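User: I'm designing a mutation panel for RecA family profile 1 domain-containing protein and want to avoid disrupting the core. Could you give me a predicted structure to guide residue selection? Please restate the sequence first so the numbering is unambiguous.

Assistant: Good idea. Sequence first, for numbering, then the predicted structure tokens:
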Amino acid sequence: MDLQQLDLRPRVAAGVRRGERAAADVLRLSGLELQRLTGLSLSDVQQLLTAAATACRPHPPVSAILLHRGECLRLESGLRLSVGCPVLDQLLRGGLPVGGVTELSGESGAGKTQLALQLCLSVQYPAQQGGLDSGAVYICTEDSFPIRRLQQLIREQSCLRSDVPPSLISTLPFGDRVYVEHAADLDSLQVCLSRRVPLLLTRGLVRLLVIDSVAALFRCEFQAADWLERTKQMLSVSSTLHRLSQEFTTPVLCVNQVTHTCYLVSPALGLAWANQVMVRLMMRRLQATVARGDQRSALRRLEVVFAPHLARDGRDAGVWREGVRGVTD
């Protein structure tokens, strides 16, 4: 059935005409992709999805419609995982959304892993302090896990989180609630995502999944001529990540590398992967340096590339002993 035949609000109908999609196609697209194609808001996309499900009766793609509804509801509910810094949380409207996949891309040394480690500690705080009162699972695909840096961040938590009573910080077993996995190839990654990670989530031991980095395995295992198989594997990994995120109300953070083309820096893995993430963030290392007390840091900038609930904007930050903190004038 054609969506044009349904009773849609004029604004939604105009978005459908721009997107030129049939009902069945709509239900197979991500919420982010629908917003790109139609230019509609979250609430308008929700009405479009409901109409599309009606048009496809009696056999709509149920999993797709439930996934879209889950994304919209969680974005609108305001439940977030704090970064642990008021300046960066302001940029992200409270932090990472708990439903959906967030990508953090950037060049080597930009501070991506630093921010990922910081989130692994932030998730352990109670909801009143922006956490989810649980642990994190950190999957390394190329480098060894930076345990010394994590231990330093733990020691400096009282400095970073001055908003949290020291008595609470001293009671949190930070080091015992970060579960580290290593995946040297796509097969081991899929085993980890299909067996070990669901076990941790089911037991309530973790509420954050980090993959660092998602591009490494696809770059080393496939040649340019293998693009079709690479895309197939990429979509399989993405589907698993979305399912875990929605089923367990868990934020997923994928650290990504970048490619350089014509003097431009863009996230790796191309458009096929870009369509699978709900939020894309980028960290840049700038030429300037900043100082605070006895510390100096290369200036970084965290930018929102796209997100259905965020404006394209950015904040300057530095990497200090206690973690990544926004820089204010």
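For picking mutation sites, this is relevant: Residues 57-69 have pLDDT under 50 and may be disordered. DSSP finds 14 helices and 13 strands in the chain.
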